[in-house]
Design goal:
seven-stranded mixed β-sheet; about 475 residues; 17 strands; Aldehyde Dehydrogenase, Chain A, domain 2; about 40% helix; alpha/beta; Aldehyde Dehydrogenase, Chain A, domain 1
Length: about 475
């Protein structure tokens, strides 16, 4: 197998990328409908290569982040990828089956079918926070549907990119899967290419640019954009039972997760209890931070400075900021790690309530009743994830019915995005379209309608000349 990283210069010359696209389009023409065994074989090769480079991948991610726990990589990236491959290989044959559809009596004798056909070449644009899973999970979806793919990797994870390229080199030829790297200008040029589908994971701001560029080619898009995912805590749930689930969701990868809890909504009477329980649970999970390899660093200085500016903005505008630093360590130099900060008394104009936080900062907003909490969520852009902590069935049903989000997890965090049988995707400003599982297969396929007739033509009764007795009888039958 041979796959090369396509190095594109600063002039935005898209010739190399266009050549890759042309090469894959030609391969699609020669093999327009890969069989189920071919698709399964490709995914198995990918799995073998990934496991072969397992250690190199965790080392590279640790280098790119400066501190990225091996277990975070294993739990958050490698295990979900292997699970997604196993799930897809077990279901591809079923997904590919032609579906029979009902035909009315007036169209008989004939048949109606849906054939799931590969779209062609899929462009995948990868973020930096989970660069392995956000490369390979969309790729698994694309390959399961019989497509080929060109992948634009993030410029912020150079060491990981080398290993991802090696993984793909062991599994695929360049006419099936290809990789390009480069800065933001290359990403812009990439999204302007006439792919058959584009899957982008990243910020809402950049997602709009990608969609605008894709529109020039009428290229359909799947956008996974994150957003401000709320966490509702109800009045009665025992915090001791559920707080570790919230701390896990916010602390995993230091909050650099598109589905991480972005803010908490809790009853006014429970705010102090929430703060104390959060502090207690976090301190047990992470008794130290600065030299603790379990706690991930912020990816780069730009993101570190952005998060620090959010804290300054909140403090300058009157928020009560509570840092959680269990060992009282000096974090002022020598690290890009940020201790968790709980933010109380935040006002709507603060950046932490306007932008997706994407880090270990957690505003706590109070509400007087559930109607107020629901209204708070509905007054804002629809999030990728919504978390509800309540054992009350009526409360669960109200929140499910009266709010919109890409997905919901009740009494847990993050886990909904790891279930391969559930579609994953946003709504409104948190994105559009799905990938993962059956819905992902549908997104990456053309559901082609097929109407088939044989020698007998039952439709002759509706041909001219009109006004015959049989036509009048047909109209009476069809218009009742």
């Amino acid at each position: 197998m041979n796959i090369q990283v396509a190095q594109i210069d600063e002039s935005r010359d898209t010739k190399r990328m266009q050549d890759l696209l042309d090469k894959q389009r030609q391969a699609c023409r020669l093999e327009p409908m890969p069989s189920a065994p071919q698709r399964i074989d490709g995914l198995k090769r990918l799995k073998t290569s990934l496991l072969k480079h397992n250690e190199a991948m965790t080392t590279a991610l640790n280098d790119d982040f400066s501190c990225r726990c091996k277990d975070v990589t294993t739990i958050g990236e490698l295990i979900p990828i292997v699970a997604a491959i196993n799930y897809a290989t077990a279901h591809i044959k079923k997904w590919m089956k032609t579906e029979k559809r009902h035909l009315p009596l007036t169209m008989q004798p004939a048949s109606a079918q849906i054939v799931y056909q590969p779209l062609g070449v899929v462009g995948i644009i990868v973020p930096w926070n989970y660069p392995v899973s956000m490369t390979l999970t969309p790729l698994i979806t694309a390959l399961s549907a019989g497509n080929r793919a060109i992948i634009k990797l993030s410029e912020f994870t150079p060491e990981t990119n080398k290993v991802i390229t090696a993984v793909l080199a062991d599994a695929f030829d360049e006419d099936q899967v290809a990789v390009v790297t480069g800065e933001a200008d290359i990403g812009a040029a990439f999204s302007s290419l006439p792919f058959d589908h584009i899957l982008f994971t990243g910020s809402t701001v950049v997602g709009k640019h990608v969609m605008r560029a894709a529109a020039e080619n009428l290229t359909p898009v799947t956008l996974e954009l994150g957003g401000k995912s709320p966490t509702i805590i109800d009045e009665k749930i025992p915090l001791a039972d559920i707080m570790e689930r919230i701390v896990f969701g916010k602390s995993f990868n230091a909050g650099q997760t598109c589905t991480a809890p972005d803010y908490i909504l809790c009853p006014v009477s429970r705010r102090d209890e929430v703060v104390e329980q959060y502090r207690r649970v976090f301190s047990r999970m992470y008794p130290t931070i600065k030299s603790n390899s379990d706690y991930t660093s912020i990816i780069n200085q730009r993101q570190f400075d952005r998060l620090q500016s959010y804290l300054r903005d909140a403090e300058e505008n009157g928020a009560n900021i509570i840092p959680i630093n269990p060992a009282g360590e000096d974090m002022s130099h020598g690290t890009r790690k940020i201790v968790p900060h709980l933010v109380l008394d935040a006002s709507p104009g603060m950046k932490i309530l306007q932008d997706e936080i994407f880090g270990p900062i957690l505003p706590i907003i109070t509400y007087r009743d559930l109607d107020e909490a629901i209204a708070y969520i509905n007054d804002r852009p629809r999030p990728l994830a919504l978390y509800l902590f309540s054992f009350d069935k009526a409360t669960q049903q109200r929140v499910l019915e009266q709010t919109h989000s890409g997905g919901v997890s009740i009494n847990d965090t993050l886990m909904q995005s790891a279930v391969d049988s559930l579609p994953f995707g946003g709504i409104g400003e948190s994105g559009m379209g799905h990938y993962h599982g059956w819905e992902g297969f549908q997104s990456m396929s053309k559901a082609k309608s097929v109407f088939k007739k044989g020698r007998i033509n039952g439709a002759k009764s509706v041909y001219a000349p009109y006004g015959t007795a049989i036509q009048k009888l047909l109209y009476r039958f069809a218009l009742r």
